[in-house]
Amino acid sequence: MARLSITAIAVAFFLVAAGAGATEARVPHHNGANTAMYIFAQGRKVATGTSVSVPQHKGVNTDEYILARKLAGTVTPMQACDGLEGNKKVCYTIAKLPGVATPRSLLETAIRVALGRARAMKATFDAAKAAAKTGNPMASILGSCDKNYDDLVDALEEVTRSLQKGGSNSNLVSKMSAASTYATDCDNWYSERSLTSPYEAVQRHTAQAVSVALGVAATNKYL
Predict the structure, then answer these.
(1) Are 9 and 37 in contact (CB under 8 A)?
(2) Dihedral of the alpha carbons of 152, 223, 97, 205, in degrees to the nearest 10
(3) Looking at residue 196, what DSSP letter applies?
(4) How much of the chain is in helix, strand and coil states, percent to nearest 5?
(5) What is the distance between the alpha carbons of residues 50 and 130, in angstroms, rounded to a whole number?
(6) What are the pLDDT digits (tens) for 99-109?
(7) DSSP 8-class letter at 7
(8) Residue 187 and residue 144: Cα distance in Å, rounded?
(9) Angstrom distance (rounded) from CA 92 to CA 97
(10) Hey, which residues does 33 pair with through a beta bridge?
(11) Which of 5, 11, 28, 51 is most solvent-facing, going by the fewest CB within 10 Å?
(12) Model-level pTM?
């Protein structure tokens, strides 16, 4: 990051000098923000002595924010998947879906896929619980899993609302972390009883989509 900052400043001052001839350029700071980086991020050329206003974005110096967003725009969904620690193949599959062109749209699509699967699992366990006979030892697991996927649906819907409202990245990651816990609880209850869920494959795919969404949110600060 230090190398990038030096490069940004160097290029910014080069642009300033080019616009002003041999005259020394004065590029002021604004509220402590690095205006040179702001100019570089904007791809702007300014004249000598020009004062550049650098507003704030949610407490972050806008020069840094714009540069980060500019650089984020050069990151493809596939490259965003490369940065994940796990479930890269699942991420690559989601990245190829229609409409996925940026890390943000990758995140939105991963959440949408996970939410659709969670709703399907909720309906599946609803039906299984209703069909289970009284006294069936599986009834407690079915009931717990039903409630678990209901919680997962609620958590993912909350994540969707937070993303649409432009909530902070830390808040988004926190909500996704909670969702990821719900995504694996049902599997754990089967494992504790040395049983295999008849819906194991779908449950795994749901958990993987949630994991991808969490990974993308955690590794892409500005979305």
Answers:
(1) yes
(2) -30
(3) -
(4) 70, 5, 30
(5) 72
(6) 999 899 999 99
(7) H
(8) 11
(9) 9
(10) 30
(11) 51
(12) 0.65
